[in-house]
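Q: Given only this backbone (223 positions), what sequence would you predict?
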């Protein structure tokens, strides 16, 4: 799973071909599930960028707490699992970032080693994700809770020594296809694959382990 990510230079996220302007953002180096994150979605009202809670709350859920368990969706089951299949059909999202973290299990060690992963040139990118709008049952006029999750896939060569999954990173030329609610499921599924571009990965301190910690120290290379 992917449990943390960041965008250390929010201004650079604006260089992505998103088709809309992102909300004003502060630098974030340790974004964690349940926090508000910027996403781009497309629906009957058109394309827009909004803040959403990380942790998908399906529209049919009785309690939004289910989102605490749904920060990620596996790409190989996303089209079939009840928690994700409706969103995968028509509510796909772009989630901009410039880094993410994974924790490596090390032989003989009880503490996992956190790694920071970026594109090789440190440029921004978008995860492939899903979004939902949830309202409490019996309260149709309530303000919807918009939530999201990341989709994961098999690791590429950079990630394989670190973890057995990685988040889907979409090529910029696929953004429109991914967001379009009318895109056939098979075409969307074909975009769920390991990132094939150059990446960099380096170990960082366990400071990033605590969601309350924030700042550049979270992704500073381990001395």
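A: Predicted residues:
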């Amino acid at each position: 799973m992917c449990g943390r990510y960041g965008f250390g230079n929010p201004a650079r996220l604006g260089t992505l071909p998103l088709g809309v302007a992102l909300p004003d953002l502060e630098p974030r180096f340790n974004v964690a599930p349940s926090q508000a994150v910027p996403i781009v979605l497309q629906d009957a009202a058109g394309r827009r960028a909004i803040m959403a809670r990380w942790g998908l709350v399906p529209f049919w859920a009785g309690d939004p707490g289910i989102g605490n368990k749904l920060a990620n969706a596996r790409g190989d089951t996303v089209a079939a699992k009840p928690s994700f299949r409706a969103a995968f059909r028509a509510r796909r999202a772009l989630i901009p970032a410039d880094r993410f973290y994974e924790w490596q299990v090390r032989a003989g060690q009880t503490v996992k080693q956190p790694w920071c992963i970026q594109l090789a040139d440190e440029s921004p990118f978008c995860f492939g994700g899903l979004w939902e709008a949830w309202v409490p049952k019996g309260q149709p006029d309530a303000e919807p809770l918009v939530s999201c999750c990341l989709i994961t896939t098999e690791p590429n060569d950079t990630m394989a020594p670190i973890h057995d999954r990685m988040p889907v990173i979409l090529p910029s030329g696929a953004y429109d296809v991914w967001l379009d609610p009318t895109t056939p499921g098979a075409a969307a599924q074909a975009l769920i694959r390991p990132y094939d571009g150059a990446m960099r990965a380096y170990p960082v301190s366990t400071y990033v382990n605590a969601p309350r910690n924030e700042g550049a120290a979270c992704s500073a290379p381990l001395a």
